[in-house]
Amino acid sequence: MSRFFEQPASDKIIPLERFRSGKSLSPIRQAEAYWHALRDGATVPRRSQIDPRGLENILNYTFVVERIAPGIARFRLAGHHLNELAGMEVRGMPLTCFFTPAARGQISAVLEHTFDAPSVAELTLKSAARRGAAPLEARMILLPLQGEHEVVDRALGVLIGDGPVGNTPHRFEIGTTSLLPVTGGQKQPVTSAKPTPTPGFAEPQKPMTAAIPHLRLVT
Question: How many CA atoms lie within 13 A of 172 on its CB side?
């Protein structure tokens, strides 16, 4: 059994129901409230504190990424909704796989802010227009986490499309981006240099698997 599904050392589960204020509360807000509940003062929560039982009603939209190089993070865990949006299994792939070549420099800059500041990042997204398919709007949040040795190199996130998934894969452009430092402050728009196009997927696409309403661990 993976460490993700083990009971945290604190033996304390914080259920999302504690933060609900009605059906209008989105998975983005629920994940943010859960993350804040795990904080100790102004510190960043530890990856080991995350318990899937506390996130069970939004697991389909939830993911965990790990920083592997400056501006690059790969999926360690991903809910089924992300696989649906990509049209394939995304675990082990970089977060940039969800973005157009023109937007990959922007998301890399956002990742650097998330890990280095650290900051909570929230983005509005819109899929690139394709023949016979309406653009899909989506939202994403990245919530920094401490990995080993108290280094902030993980992030808990939510990605959710606003509408039917339709034809896949979806590649998103970034609409607005806001950052909120963990220590407080006002959200500020992110600016980045003109992005350099990068190659597409490094791995061949795989057919979508059956819906599995939980996160998976990359071994």
Answer: 26
